[in-house]
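Blinded run. Sample ID left blank on purpose so nobody reads anything into the name before looking at the predicted structure. Input follows.
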Amino acid sequence: MTINKVTTAAEAISRIRSNAVVATTGFVQSCIPEGLHAALEQRFVETGAPHDLTLIMCAGAGDSKGLGTGRLHHEGLLKRVIAANFGRMPKVADAARDNKIQGYNLPQGIISKLYRTCASGQPGLFSKVGLHTYVDPRLGGGKVNTITREDLVKLVEVEGREWLFYKATPIDVALIRATSADPLGNLSMEKEALTLDSLAQAMAAHNNGGLVIAQVERLVAEGSIRPKDVRVPGILVDCVVVADPPEMHRMNYGVMYDPALAGEVRVTVDNLPKLKLNERKIIARRAAFELPPNGVINLGVGAPDGVANVANEEKVTPLLVMTTEAGAVGGVLAGGSSFGSSANAHSVIDQNQMFDFYHGGGLDLTCLGMAECDSLGNVNTSKFGGRLNGCGGFIDISQNARAVVFAGTFTAGGLEVAVEDGQLKILKEGRARKFVQQVEQVTFSGQYAAERSQPVLYVTERCVFQLTSHGLELIEVAPGIDIERDILAHMAFKPHIHSPVTMNPAIFRDEPMALLSDLRNEHLKERVHYDPARNLLYLNLEAWSVRKKGDVADLRKVLVEACEAAGRRVDVIVNQDGCRIADDLYDAYADMVADLGKTYYARTARYATSFITRQKLQEALRRRGLDTHVYERAEEAYAALEPKPAPKPEQNVA
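Blinded prediction complete.
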C-alpha cells in the first residue's frame, strides 16, 4: 500500500489538540519551521484552538519582533512555557513576567538532553548543571513567576554528592524542520545550517504516542535519499509540510540560503572585516590572550564574538577549534542572524551531543558576556532591568568549561571611549552600573567556581578582575585609567586590590599585537638569565600568565635548558610579581618546581607582592614537602640567598 505523508500546514496543525505539550526546533534565527508556527498562530486566531498548550524549546527561536515562537504570544494559546531563552519571544516573556502563563527557565543543554530522556521513557535527568544558580531549588528552581508552582527541579544526594534531578515532561507534538522528504517521511538536511535536536524530538513525541510534523523545502522520490543521509527516519514522522511560500523556509531570518553555512562549499576567510579599535575590540583583544593553542573554544554573543575577529587578524585561528552549542565544530563562526552556524565547519553534530561534550568538560575555554557582576564573582545574564532574557546555554557552558572569561564593557548605556597615544580615555560614562552589590539573579556562581578552582577572569575595556576564594580581585588596569576615578567610583563594591599591573600596552595600539608568539611562549627564554660568577639563575615571570598546562611545560623546557647549560646546581631567584597562575594549575606548577629542585636547583627564593599569589603558591609548594617561603619584596628574596656570616667563636671571660 502506498504511503504519502505529505499534507498542508493547516491540515497538519489541525491535528494538534488543546492542552498538548509541543516541542519546536530552531536556534536563535536559524532552522526555524516558520510555516508551522505561522499556521499554528493563524488557526488559534481564527478558531481559538488549540489552546492551553505547553511549549518546550531550547534556544530562542525568533527575531525578537514577533516571528518564530514570538507568534505564539496570543492570550489563551499557551498556558506554560519551558525554555532556555525568552528574549526571542518578548511578548511571551512579558506574559510570563506578568503571571499570565506559567514559566520555567532551564539551561539549554538540559532541555536538549531531556528530549533524549523523554524518547527513552526515563523519568528525568541527573546533572550538576545549575547547582548554586537560580535553577537550583534553593534559589528558585528555575521558576520565572509566582503562579508557577510545580517543581521540575529537585536537589538530591547521590553517594554523598549533590545533584539536580530534572523532571522530564512527556512530549505530545514535535515541530521539526529538514530540507528534503520522501513520501515515507524520511528526512535529510543537506541545506540546513544545523541539525539541532530534530531526531530526539521526533523520537520523544513518537514514543509517547504523539504527533511529529516536519516542515521541508522540497519533496524527493522514495528511495532517493541515501540511508546514511536520513537524519530522521520516516517511521517517526506523521506529517510532511512543504514550506509555502519558500520564504517560510529561509536558512535564517537574514539569509535565504548560504551554501558555505550548509557545508556545500568552502570559502576563503582571509578578508574578514578588521574591527575598529574601540571598547569592543579592546575587550576582545585582552580576552584573546587567554586563548589556548590547540584548544576547543566557545564564544558567546556580544563582546565575546569579537574574539574570533581578533584571532583571525592575529593569524591564530588555525591553532584553535571554535565550536557553538548548536552543534558546529571548527571553521569560522558566523555572527548576526547566522549565529550558531559556521562556514568551513569540520563537522555539525546534534545539539544534545554537543552538550554531552560540554557537560563532560570538553571545552578548554569559553568567553561569555555579562550583564551584572557582584563582589563574590556572581554573574547575571538571565533576568535584569525588568527583562526576562533567559540563560540559554550560559549555565551549561560556564559551569563546565575548564576556564571562563566574562567579557563586557565596564558600564552600559551610552559609554564612549577613545584611545590616544596608547592611553584609554573615558569620554562619556555609561548610565548603568554592571558591577553591583548583588546580582538580581545568579546565572553563574562565583563561590561555586572558586570552590572547584575554576579559573575565571572578568575582562572590561578599562580593567581586568580575577575570581578568588575571597571574591573579585583587580589584577590589571588599562594605561590612562585612574583606579579611583574610573573604576571604584563606578562600582557598588570595592574589589580586592593588591598590586594590579598595567594591561598589555599592545592592546591599545592599532597594529598587530604579536598574539601568536605570546600564545606560543616564543620569547620565554628572554625571561631567564644566568650569572655564572654568582651561580645565580634569575627567572623573571613578572606579568606572565600560566593559563594552560602547556605553559608549565614550556617554562620547564627553558629552565632545564638553562640549568643544563650551567652544568651544575644553581641558586634561583624567581620574580613572580604580577604573575598569574590559573587556579587549577597551581599543583601542576608546584610539581614542576619540585621536579626541578630534585635535579637542578640548589637554593631557591621567590617573591610576589600579591598576598593571594604568595599564599596559593606557598600552599601548593608545601603540599609537596617544599617549605618554600614566598617573599613580598625582591630585596628579601636576594637576602635569603646571601651567605650567612660564620658565628664568632665564644671568648672566655676571666
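Unblinding after everyone has recorded impressions. DSSP finds 16 helices and 41 strands in the chain.
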